Structures are given as structure tokens and as C-alpha cells.
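Mods, move this if it's the wrong board.
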Amino acid sequence: MAHTEKITCPDCGNAPTNHTVSKLIILVDWTLSSVTSMFNRLWRVFERLTGPFIYNTLTPAIYRVFAKARLGTIVHAPDDKTSSRSLCLWQEAKRRDIDMWEFRLFGLSRELFVAKWPNRKGGREISFDGLPMPVGTSPAALSWMDDKGKLHERFGKVGIPMAEGGAVSNLTEAKNTFEKLRKPVITKPNIGSRSRHTTTHIKDLATLESAYKSAKQLSPWVIVEEELLGVVYRATVIGGEVIGVLRKDLPQVEGDGTSTMRELIDIENSKPARRGPIFHGTPESPELDAELQRQGLTQASIPLKGDLVFLSQKTSRGLGGGATDVTDTTHPNNNALFEQVARELDYPVVGIDFIIGDISRSWKEQPRSGLIECNSMPFIDVHVFPLAGKPRNTPGALWELIFPRTTT
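Not the wrong board. C-alpha cells:
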């Protein structure tokens, strides 16, 4: 079987992004932060007064005018341009008799949607970008929720467990922070990432310097923090309630005693569930060979039957990571913590990444567990289509928040 196509940036994985543009956007946002902060406060007041008209009347009307002028198109059903997140939302809308359509400017999908319920004349219509939100949802936390450094600072004040460390802007600060932390440490871009340019298991200054430079390619600020003990979990809270918890599985294969690592990787990559759009195979990359070497292996090695071999220390689905539903076994204290996070953010839909050794035990019993980041636009589709375990109807919970009593 042919090897997976080589990736263009080993630090980005299968989802490469433009380094310069990503960094520039963050710098522009920071430069204008004082102005935008004032504007956001005024906007929240204005939105409470005019939001229903702007989003539910004016925006859909503009889309229809643009479509009539042939400056855009209106799409009434999912197609090959539809993301898996939008697909599951669209499918659930249809089951609830919610009329949902997408506006595409010049044929490009920007996840600009309009939804109406009941699906008939006189029903309530809304517009949204990505995921539907209750009208007036524009909390102050939206300006810092995706900023890992600010999240660390604010959550530390209210007792939400997070790794020791923080954001740094230069290599000297990174080294000083590194020296104060328990090893190993981790580095990652301060904003965004999706595991891009993230380095784990850092134990010495030489590795730290290389890892810092990698993260710096995507962000002017870099997070340097202690590596928590355990596995990464994603909890999605909708309307203040935990709807689903997933274990993010590292890319891995299990030895059978006869196949080489290359053969095992090819077998895993060929599984239908790994042909996209949600899960993918593990690509050829220097990272793959380095991770095997760390375990004393090469692609020609034959692991023993039952031995688990990790192919990366990143859980990215683009690098071959998986996702297993563990909602039913999550300890009540952990669910309570996730719901506290959502309350602190005052946001209706939050994706929370948390590291803990055993999700079935309380975080209070596992001292090196903690929150690593939050997401204001989570991928709710991973709960609907997990690689293993029970699917969770996250889009149903979201639609029930927007259009109550549409349960079918």
C-alpha cells in the first residue's frame, strides 16, 4: 500500500496554515485591542437593543438581495463544500422541521446560515455564523476566551485548575519560565493552534529553544507551561450542561507480532473512518520517525502482539488522532468543573480541553490535572461521529437552546 502523501509543514500536520497571516492577525488584534475593547462594550449594549432586527431581519434580507443580484448563492442542502460540523447541524435541523440554508458569497462557503422555525410562513427566522447562538450572546469573555494566556490568568483567580506557567514574548522569558517549572514542559502558540506548532516532553534548554521558535511562527506570544499528567479530554457544554465528553486519543497502532510498523500504519490509515472529513490517517513526516525513534523503533520494526505504539504526541485528527466517547463514565466532580467554566465565561456553547489521568475519578484527587484551553466555536461534530463509543446529539442540544420544543 502506498505511503500517505508527505505534509508541507511538519509542525502544522495535515492542516497547514499560513504562518505569516496567522501571526499578523494576532498582532493586529492586539494592537487594536484597546479600541476594540471599548467598541465591544458599546456593541453589547447596542446589540441588546437592536440584535433581533440586525440578525433576524436585516441580515437574511441582505443575503436574499445579494443572491438575487447574483453576487452570491443560497444553498438549501449540504454538499461537498459543507463542513462536518455544519453537516450534523443541518441534519438535525431537518429532523426538527427547521428550515436551514446557507449563503455563499461568490460560491465560497463561509458558514453563513439562516434558519427558520416553524418551517412555514410566520415562523421565527435567525441568521448565524458557524453555530447558532441565542440573540444577545456577546459576553466580555468572548474577547479573551481563545487567548490561552489570558485564560490562564483569569481562571487562576477563581480556582479552576490549570498548568503552572504562562505566556512569554521572547526567548529569555521562555528560559526563565522553563527554569521555574517542573519538567517536562510544553510549548504552544498563545492563540489558536489545533495542535499546530505544539511541542511536548521538553526537558532541556536546547529543546525548549527549538520548540519556542516553532510556536513563535504562529503567534507573537508563546505558552510555556508544565506538562500535565494524563490524557486530553474534550468536554462540550451547551446551555450550561455537559452534553458530551470525548477522550482525544493519540495516533497509535497495536502490534500483532508479525507486521512491521509501516504495515500497521498503512492498515490503520486504510480504515474507512480515517478517510475524512473528520478523522484522517497518520502522514509521513519527520515527526513520525522521531516519535518511533523515541520508543526505540523504526518503520521496519515489528512490535510484539498487543503492544501499543504511539505515532505522535499530538492528538490532532489530521495526524491520525482518534476520539472515544466517555460521557457516561465521567466523574460528577469533573462535570461540575466543566459547567463552572462555562458559567465563568457566561457563554452558551463552550468546548473545553482538559488533561486528567482518569476521567472517572475526581480532578480533586489528581493534582497534576487541569484545563488547557477553551473554544468558543467548538467542533460539535466529533461528538456526533466519534471514532469509538456512543454518539452524542450535540446539535440537538444546541437547536433546543435556540428553538425550544423542537425535539422530535
